[in-house]
Amino acid sequence: MSFVPGEPVTAVVQRIEIHKLRQGENLILGFSIGGGIDQDPGQNPFSADKTDKGIYVTRVTPGGPAEVADLRMGDKIMQVNGWDMTMVTHDQARKRLTKKNEDVVRLLVTRKGLENAVRNAMM
C-alpha cells in the first residue's frame, strides 16, 4: 500500500477482535508492535519502501489471544477501537492497545495480499 502525504488513503482492511487474557492484574493481548511516527521507518522489515511509519505487528504469541483472533505478523494496524493509528507514536499506539478498562480490542488491519485477494474475488 503506497500513499502520498496529505492525500486520502484507500486500503482493504480486515476486522480483528481480540479478547484479552486476564493473568492476575494484567490483560494479555499476545502480540508486539513496531513502528510509529517517532521511529526510523528504515528499520521496519514490513515497510516495502522503507518510508512507512505505520504501526505493524512484529510478533504473535503462539496460542495467545491475538493468534486465536487471526492477527498475523506483518499486519499493519489502521485502527484500534475506532481510533486512527496511521499517525501515532509508538508509545501512543502501545497505550491505546493496553488500556486497563478494555477487555476487548477491535482492530482494523491491512496485510500483504489482502488487496489482491479482494481484487481477484471481484473478477
Q: Could you tell me the mean pLDDT? A: 87
Number of helices: 3
Number of strands: 8
Let me know the largest β-sheet.
6 strands, antiparallel
Instruction: Encode the helix/strand succession as letters.
Output: EEEEEHEEHEH
Span between termini: 20 Å
Helix content: 10-25%
The radius of gyration is: 15 Å
Structural class: alpha+beta
Measured by DSSP, the beta-strand proportion falls in 25-35%
Name the overall outline.
Answer: globular
- Poorly predicted regions are none
Structure description:
The chain is an alpha+beta fold and 123 residues long. The protein has helices spanning 65-68, 90-97, 114-121; strands at residues 14-19, 21-23, 26-28, 31-35, 55-60, 76-80, 83-84, 104-110. Strands 1, 4, 5, 6, 7 and 8 form a 6-stranded antiparallel beta sheet that branches. Strands 2-3 form a two-stranded antiparallel sheet. A hairpin with a 2-residue loop joins strand 6 and strand 7 (83-84). It is globular.
